[in-house]
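Field notebook, page 687. I keep forgetting to write these up properly, so this time I am using the form the group agreed on. The chain and the ligand, 2-(butylsulfanyl)adenosine, are recorded exactly as supplied. Prediction of the bound pose follows.
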Amino acid sequence: MYTECIIKKFNIFKTFSLKFVTIFMVIRMDNVSKIMDELIEKINKASIEYYVNDNPTITDQEYDDYYNELIRLEKKYPELKKSNSPTLRVGGKVVDKFEKVTHDTPMLSFDDIFNEDEIVLFDERIRKSCPNASYTLEPKMDGLSGSLLYKNGVLVRAATRGDGLIGENITHNVETIKSVPLKLNKALDIEVRGEIYMSKASFEKCNKEREKNGENLFANPRNAAAGSVRQLDSKIAAKRNLDFMAYFLPNPEKYGIKTQEESLKLLKELGFKTNYKLNGIAKGVNDIISYIDDLGKKRPDLPFEIDGVVLKVNSLDDEAKLGFTERVPRWGIAYKFPAEEVLTTLKEIKFTVGRTGKITPNAIFSPVHVAGSIVSKATLHNEDYCLDKDVRVGDVISIRKAGDVIPEVVEVKKERRTGNEVLFKMIENCPMCASKLVKEDANYFCKNSLCPARKIEGLIHFASRDTMNIDGLGERIIEDFYNMGFIKSISDIYLLSNHKEDLIELEGFGEKSVNNLLNSIENSKNNSLEKVLFALGIRHVGKKTAKIIAKRYKTIDNLINASEEELTSVNDIGEIIAKSIKKYLSDSNNLNLIEDLKKLGLNFEYKNEGEDDKLSGMTFVLTGTLEKYKRDELTKILENKGAKVTSSVTKKTSAVIVGDKPGSKYDKALKLGITIYNEKDALNIIK
Ligand code: IVH
């Protein structure tokens, strides 16, 4: 009885104390959660002031103290970690693929215009329906557009534009961008659009680092930004220091907004970086032109790249009145600056030897800054090109970047000649091995298969991004390793681990970078067949052909056993390609190389089964003005599904897609009896 009583009392005590401990814990967790919220608030506010408003409000020490305390609490109470925590910025989230995202409102872009006449026409068109229209003028940021979705003020999703209707989910990378608020200053459900970009300073830093690591350099900040958001591991984007400039609300009326100016103001209030110091307002063409001139002058000193001016009608009533064509908004337009051209002096014409032995003359000039990077050489293609341009060493030449990526010599400034310039003369012997060059059509070739230049170029091609994608094995490193005797042939790449200790000793290397390089070499062994086929450097087998062949034959052994006739029957493989493949795969040296690579563990099977390449093997030609898409957009959509888009109609063309006012391609298609689709049919087929 006594014992029973004691047990009862003990149980009451136990229940009571357990309840007490639970209540105590709940209160404690509540407090911790509050403290974390406060820290997040302080850090996020300070970040916005620093990264968006350029106005630091706390010291670095204070920032670090808050940040470290937050990390400590998040480690101790991982269940309390918040979705707007600034610790997300360091990256670390890894996704295994990019989920598709359907945009609620299509992400369109504007039509481009290039000169004053087109500005006048645009203004006239607007004034027909909106006589009192005024415009906002904004720098056209040169990055990639992104859509950020906030629920209750918290960032829940970020996506790329994609084809305008469907983009890709890049939330894990966008979370790392310090100028993207993870939580807005108001608890709104809102979609914000703007440009993801890389500043000029971050771009220089990023490329310097890539050069140090022997990686391929990015051609410009836009490519660098695009390459960074398309990474599965967000640590890479976090390191690249991307930025975000907000410029557009797809549904402004929901927030009581009446003008584009007010949209920009709200964006700033919500905590976004906007171009409020550079944006302008125009009442008419004169204002627009002087804004463009003015911004053009400021352009070189801006911290980011811009490629034009975006004009939008300011009043949302006007915007609604003007509406859209099937393809683009009528209420805005993008004026593009002319491609930047800079003058420099031609110092030397240097001949290089490609992996096929082709000799290319290259212009080597005093380094100049053009369209986002410093360049010092451009191809001069071949002898005829040099003679046509009459290019001479010592000439003043103008340079621009074709398609904003590849430098080209636009013009020789003959009026600036002094008489000391040296006439162009084609060489007769290989600059590397001195073999007599052989002319085939417009080009000269070194036919010595042991020529070191050809070997080095072959190795560079093998390791490059589109082929085996071996990070850390860029041009300079391959040249050095070749000259030092570490890599003399493709197989040697996969035997590099035997020299690990020697490599670690080399200047500029260390254990970490050598380990990274060896890992990247090891990973490349798993590439799908098309990569290694392209990498081998078979003449006439480019990226697309390699894909077609890999998909058709599945393994290298099947391909080795295929006859030339059989190869020619594959869509898109003509006689020249088939002959070249057969020749390569009948040469015992090449077969030995393939056997060696197999023994070293390289995969020679096609792995990308199930990819969406339903249009593979089809060739399209586009003509006329399309309604819904720009031509390059539709081209991209078709190419993503494996189709080829060419500019001329031949018997091999699968179909011609015809828009408004088609050109002679339409007539030719009719004549040849090629299938003709209008845009709607074509889109149905794509679907
Ligand atoms: S507004 C309906 N504003 O340039 C288009 N776009 O064609 C709404 N861009 O693809 C976009 N700076 O990526 C807008 N201040 C700006 C911009 C801008 C750059 C890009 C955008 C779009 C293209 C315009």
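OBSERVATIONS:
- The first strand starts at residue 100 and ends at 102.
- The pocket of 2-(butylsulfanyl)adenosine is lined by residues 108-110, 138, 140-141, 145, 195, 247-248, 310, 329, 334 (CB under 6 Å).
FOLLOW-UP: compare against the apo run.
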